[in-house]
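hi! just following up on the protien thing from before. the input was this:
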Amino acid sequence: MKTIQTSEARCRDCYKCIRHCPVKAIGLKNGQAWVSEDKCVFCGQCIKACPQNAKSTVSQVEIFDRMLREGLPVTVSIAPSYLANSIYDSPWQLIAGLYQIGVRRVEETAVAAEWVAARYSQRVKGQNQKTVISSCCPVIVDLIEKYYPQLLECLPGIASPMAVHARQIKQSDGEGMKVVFIGPCYAKKAEALKEKGLIDCVLTFQELADYLKVRNISCNALDGRFPERMSHHARLFPLHQGILHTAGIEQKLKSDIITVSGIDDCLETLEALREGTIQPRFVEALACKGGCIGGPALGNPQGIPARRERLIRWAEQAQSTFREENRVWAVDDGRRHQAAPLKLPMPTDKELAEILAQTGKYTPEDETNCGGCGYSSCREKAIAVYQGLAEVEMCIPYMKNKAESFSNVIVDTSVNGIIVVDADLVIQKYNPTAARMFHMPLHTAEGHKLETYLDPADFREVFGSQKLSVVMRSYPQWGLYTRQVIYPLSKYNVVIGIISDLTEEEAQKQKFASMKREAFDRASKVIHQQMRIAQEIAGLLGESTSDTKATLLELMEIMEGEVQ
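and the predicted 3d structure came back as:
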């Protein structure tokens, strides 16, 4: 089942998702981006980055809605970051909204986070000297399983709070109880699929907010309600260093502990662990900046500092409502991590060179590494082309040069002369046809005044009026007759002249006119001779010649008009 989907209608070749994907799990085919779920770690960076909103997670809202409408018992496990959600006046109104739509019970996932944190504390304080990396964040787990399998032994084999809480609920209420997890994380949807039906549905806070609107539930108009089970110690769990705080180990082994949040810092830390340049006892790694409050689907437009302040404020207020439970939740908290390294084909040096050559990169100096395609280097992009994840045409400098080259070919091969001048009537560009027409040197006339080669008056007039002009101009010194279309390009403060050579056409026209004049002259002589003979014959016969004379004169006028 796909977790992230792309709208083909909205996706428009911007490559921004590729640029922001930390593991380059975005492929491109026929200009359309697609997500390789084998490579994807579901961090949601592509969804956040897409300017056309072409990417989204596959929604499970319909599943949630169907369970409620069928009257099935539903328990919501709500991630502790809900305290940072600012869509509603208070987090307790969000809880009230869940009860309003028919949820049987709402519990904080943080109750299981306490259990998980205690297990981490045992591991860190134990005799095992191996590095332990927190496995609460599904993005980090996917990164290690797919890209850093050498670090698999650093994962503690402890399930996430979401999974542990779901097991607690199923153990307490039976398999018939439907468990719905609601949080700020897209990756939880992928994690839930691995749990084989343990979690029946996963929604993001944003999806829940949209669903409540559809159900016409105005949470801000409701009296607040508290979850039925709330955490006493783990409300700060979703913050940077929240795991350490909950486990009570943040101060005891400080020099042996690393805390990182944000995908880039996490990748840097994993690289250092793989290379052996660091050897901490414990690494708290959260893919989102600031921790889970930086989740991509929290539904909070505020920044990390404001979210953090809001969570702490509401967590402190909730302390007075906490009721200690004597119940011990003895559930299986284990998780089996399995390496899933990617086996992508790699090109040989020859094949790589051939791919690079397709975009005009024959030497290392040709590799601009501009990042416009979304990849950090030309070679990285070429490898992606070989693997079927990228297209040759994604190279922006190459396509730009290709377009310019195509345009230059059109201009250079045009049968019309083309001259571009600036406001000072200095030649900026001209093509070979213009050079031939006006006896200009083929490559060195740029930078010279137009008046050096032809009268600039028409170009000057267009600059002044900023209106298109069509004029006929002859140049007797070169035997040249032209039609000139001159127009301004105000954006670039230049004037462009497109000059058609009509010399041959004009010569043909003159030749035809001369032929008609000669024919007219011959016809005139014949007519005058015929008139004379007709007059003589008419005189002899005694007949009037007036009609004949009028007809002949009319014919002469018609022929003279055609010649002119």
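The radius of gyration is 41 Å.
The mean pLDDT is 87.
cheers
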